[in-house]
Amino acid sequence: MKRILFAVIACFSLMSSYAVKYDVVVAQDGSGDFTTIQEAVNSVRAEMQERKTIFVKNGVYREKVVIPTSCINVTIVGESKDSTIISWGDHAKMPLPGTDKPMGTFKTYTLLVRGNGFKAKNITIINDAPQLGQAVALHVEADKVEFIDCRLLGNQDTIYAGKENCRQYFKNCEIEGTTDFIFGPSTAYFEACLIRCKKNSYITAPSTPEYCKYGFVFHKCRIIAAESIDKVFLGRPWRPFGQSVFIECFMDKHIRPEGWDNWRNPENEKTARFMEIENNGPGAALENRVNWSKKGKKKDKAEYEISRVFSSVVEKWKPEE
Prior knowledge:
- The chain is mainly β.
- The protein has a single domain, classed as Pectate Lyase C-like (3 Solenoid), CATH 2.160.20.
- Helix 2 links the parallel strand 1 and strand 2.
- It starts with a helix and ends in a 10-residue tail after the last helix.
């Protein structure tokens, strides 16, 4: 009986592996259609409404990857989250090629996404530059973007959610950094993500426009740090109306009692939109939070349901996962 059961399981596993269809395969050993991810992206025809899926076999792909505006509805799937890696190492103080001018923050990306409808699954994106300045791993300037079961790793400015009126969804992702490592003006929803702080500094630096109702929403995330880290702020407003909201998240003891910082500008306290709702853990106590942040209640959670957050921007959209 056991032999029959194992045979059935093996049969189903084989069938399911063949059932997955990929349009393009990337493999460094030459066994796929391309050996680099950028070549695979470049092979996708412009403005195709039909989704195209690129499968990337395990390996460290040392390249800066750009998903152009014309490349819509593209999915990149890694063979395994820990072993399929896109890596680069630019930082803001490096000179632009052929010049003596510094690169600046917004050219340091490892992956730049400009094409709407982009999805990434089971892949690691790293900016491994030394800690000498801002160094973006993921730079997103697109709408309806999803990252599922990914690792987004870096130091300062790991994720730039970089365009207002655009929506990005992160689920079951591992995100790490030092200073302002989730920043920008987009509406971004982080669901059940692991947020790892590598330095006594700030997690979020939202620049949400005044007219945008939602900025960064963290739901059921775990916010952790190494033992040596003990003074981390949940966020500070990069622009006056920046918004960050934490809901039902676990916060370890490294979160500072005051929770939030005004970025050396008391005027920001009048406009910044920071809120915490039913979080838990040793860093979640609200008694000593700054008096200009909001302490939400159970009834406030409905205001931050994902369907409501994303339908507030342009048109209704719910991630397919």
